Amino acid sequence: MGKVFGLLGHPVGHSMSPLIHNDAFRSLGIDASYHAFDVRPDQVKEAIEGIRALGIAGCNVTVPHKVAVIPHLDKIDEEAEQIGAVNTIVNEDGCLIGYNTDGRGYVESLLEETNALADKHVLMIGAGGAARGVVTALLREGIGKLTMTNRTLEKTEPLLQLAREFATDAEAIHKQEAEGRLAEFTIIINSTSIGMSPNVEEIPLSLERITSDQVVSDLIYNPLETKLLKEAAMRGAKTVNGVGMFVNQAALSFQHWTKQQPDRNRMKNIVLEKLG
Ligand code: ATR
User: Fold this and answer.
1) Dist CA 251 CA 242 (whole Å)
2) Is the pLDDT of residue 115 over 90?
3) Does 155 count as an annotated binding residue?
4) Which residues are the active-site residues?
5) Which of 34, 66, 92, 213 could form an S-S bond across to 85 if both were Cys, CB 3.0 to 4.6 Å?
6) Is 236 labelled as part of a ligand binding site?
7) Does the CB atom of residue 128 touch ligand 1 within 6 A?
8) CB within 8 A of 248, min separation 6: which ones?
9) Over the stretch 56-89, which tens digit does the pLDDT of each residue have?
């Protein structure tokens, strides 16, 4: 039997990860398979023990287990530690190492559309788990300034603290203020679920003051173009949807497991076809 990889999540039925990883194994001639495992929240510890006992070579971890798996692993990579969440496990001869490729995956998708981030002023909408991955990776890459906005403003505090550790200028402001100061931001990123299917008519922030030299990005990829991105495009701004992040995090996990580069365009086409 070839190597076995998997996804730990709950639920996992609609995940596209098995499709893209199994296709990548096949196309690179790697004898391995990838399976989705539905793990109940009270069974996370047993699932990790199962990886060891069965010799599963590696896993992805998704909602709601990205934080819960951490105490059961042997080593946590520095970036995953900063994010406080793991989305990738590598089984190195019985030693389970946790990584997080979500944030880096997103930054790489942004860099496909914009040049260096060093002088960019980023507005991050939302302060949950997804924001944490992306903001951490942006700070590691190096940005000019970070402004955060969130329904519950206090929840931005840990990320503002992290920005201070990176000596990056950072602040948190209310949504109304962000809307008024919209022209200041070079890149505006939505990390909340506002606009996600089936609530496609919702928008996290008014883009009335957007201009064509700004970038608007959404981590959501279902729908592909959220109302936020449609409005941005209508007003001439550049847009970045969440497909690149999904594909790149998968590709980076794949590289951790196999030390080989999967074809990211092939992965992207599978996702786009599946999303219709
Ligand atoms: P994820 O892992 O997807 O980031 P999360 O950690 O639950 O999920 O974070 C959800 C984010 O979306 C939070 O920033 C949340 O705002 P609060 O911190 O105020 O809860 C935001 N969010 C979700 N639904 C929202 C809504 N209807 N209006 C405004 N913000 C919302």
Assistant:
1) 14
2) no
3) yes
4) 66
5) 66
6) no
7) yes
8) 101, 104, 105, 106, 108, 109, 264
9) 999 999 999 999 999 999 999 999 999 999 999 9
Taking the C-alpha atoms of residue 123 and residue 118, their distance in angstroms, rounded to an integer, is 14
* 149 CB within 6 A, ligand 1: no
Asked if residues 60 and 7 have their Cβ atoms less than 8 Å apart, the reply is yes
Report the alpha-carbon distance of residue 107 to residue 154 in Å, rounded.
25
Instruction: Tell me how far the alpha carbon of residue 204 lies from the centroid of ligand 1, in angstroms.
Output: 10
pTM (2 d.p.) = 0.96
Question: What's the length of the chain?
Answer: 276
- Ordered by where they begin, the domains of the chain are 3-100+244-275 (3.40.50.10860), 104-241 (3.40.50.720)
243 C-beta closer than 6 A to ligand 1:
no
Tokens of 117: 């981030």
- How far, in Å, is the centroid of ligand 1 from the Cα of 193? 6
Q: Is 27 annotated as a binding-site member?
A: no
- Measured from the Cα of 155, ligand 1's closest atom is 18
ipTM for the predicted complex comes to: 0.98
| Cα–Cα distance measured from residue 120 to residue 141, given in angstroms and rounded to the nearest whole number | 11
